[in-house]
Amino acid sequence: MSHWTQAFLEAHVAELDAATNTQLAYARDLANFSSWLSARKRHFGALAQSDIEAYLIDCEAAGLAKSTRARRLSAIRQLFRFAFEEGWRSDNPALRIKGPGKDRHLPGTLDLAEVERLISAARVSGEGRDRLRNTCLMELLYATGMRVTELVSLPVAAARGDPRMLLVRGKGGKERLVPLSASARSAMADWLAQRDTLEAAARKASGIPASKYLFPSRGQSGHLTRHRFFMLIKELAVAGGVAPDKVTPHTLRHAFATHLLAGGADLRAIQTMLGHADVATTEIYTHVLDDRLRALVLDHHPMSRQTGLKDKS
Length: 313
Known about the structure:
- This protein has 15 helices and 2 strands.
- A hairpin with a 5-residue loop joins strand 1 and strand 2 (175-179).
- Strands 1-2 form a two-stranded antiparallel sheet.
- By secondary structure, the protein is mainly alpha-helical.
- The protein starts with a helix and ends with a helix.
- It has helices spanning 2-16, 20-39, 49-61, 66-86, 112-124, 128-144, 148-152, 182-206, 226-240, 249-262, 267-274, 279-282, 284-300, 302-307, 309-312; strands at 165-169, 175-179.
- The protein folds into 2 domains: 2-86, Tyrosine recombinase, N-terminal domain (DNA polymerase, domain 1, Orthogonal Bundle); 112-282, Intergrase catalytic core (hpI Integrase, Chain A, Orthogonal Bundle), CATH 1.10.443.
- The chain is globular, with a radius of gyration of 24 Å.
- Helix 1 (2-16) packs antiparallel against helix 2 and helix 6 (128-144) packs across helix 10.
């Protein structure tokens, strides 16, 4: 079964230019499914629809979230579609299995004051060169709503020439342009000058070639890692007096979208800047805004206090 999985993953990467995180998730999901089948002496080539359904029932019994079960079924479906197209099977046993769906959760976000405290903390926390880098990271994240992987892997070429728009390479290799605020451009210019100085010194001292990334690192990836940025943003939350459990790179992405929407931005424009393939994904931010407006009325409208409306809602 490992040969089936490996061939599928290689084809999936080649045909769809799948993101690394997607590849790793599918590999883990299919490895789990393979182990489950092996324990029952079953094989991809001979299993039936009922075997897949039994596996999904076991996943549910183990307490896996709907989103995890839906992703595992997606990996299984794509594997067997690939196997059918390659002629390894004469049927697709996953074709008619209905997925569990996904729980709809409103994204967590931050208010403007909290975002300002995070950015202010970046400007004053850490050593001089770290302050410039951290300020650039925070300003860019809030100004563009980029995904964390898109941010940490930005090529330095994208920052050259004081650009008004930043070219971002997102999921599936799709590129999009996002506008930069004046403060984000200033922070990026300051960090770029410092970064180039540090790179030149490293090259002179040890012959290390210049990095192609805006946020270089000597680690295997060559750039700041997602994990390190996650830890950094928690540190800035503590320094800025913002509850660390509220702050992740993704909550700043949500803040970007929610604040734009509250300011009257067009939903389609926000969809484009976030890199969402479907506007339905972006529409969830209208629900976040609706909930905030509703809470505002219930908490502050005089009639809600006089009539007990808040208690009845």
